[in-house]
Amino acid sequence: MTEKLNDENMDFLFDAILNLESREECYKFFTDLCTVNELKSISQRVVVAKMLKEKQVYSDIVRLTGASTATISRVNRSLSYGEGGYDIVFGRMNQK
């Protein structure tokens, strides 16, 4: 999947994100970049991934996040067969 995304535009986006230094800067940048619905969807997926890593069941995840079972399944598939991005982020967050 990563190969399909690699291009100059994606590199520019990720370089821009890597230059953010605070949560406040993230709010400003992502609010300018994304719609409210896009941000809510992205943040929901991260929370779903965290809950799946904590071995919470689908019914609890649906109830607590409002995510559809399709979204939960998609995130679960990424956790199992993806690039390991969630593991990188969660590992670093746990170190703090």
Tell me the series of helices and strands, N- to C-terminal.
HHHHHHH
**Beta fraction:** under 5%
Number of strands: 0
Percent helix range: over 70%
Using only CA atoms, what is the Rg? Answer: 15 Å
Average of pLDDT: 95
Count of separate DSSP helical elements: 7
Please give a structural write-up.
The protein is built from seven helices and no strands. The chain has 96 residues and is mainly α. The termini are far apart.
Keyphrases for this structure?
mainly alpha, 96 residues, 79% helix
Summarize this structure briefly:
This protein is mainly α and 96 residues long. It has helices at residues 2-5, 8-18, 23-33, 36-53, 58-65, 69-81, 85-95. Helix 4 crosses helix 6 (69-81).
Write the layout of secondary structure elements.
Blueprint: H1 2-5, H2 8-18, H3 23-33, H4 36-53, H5 58-65, H6 69-81, H7 85-95
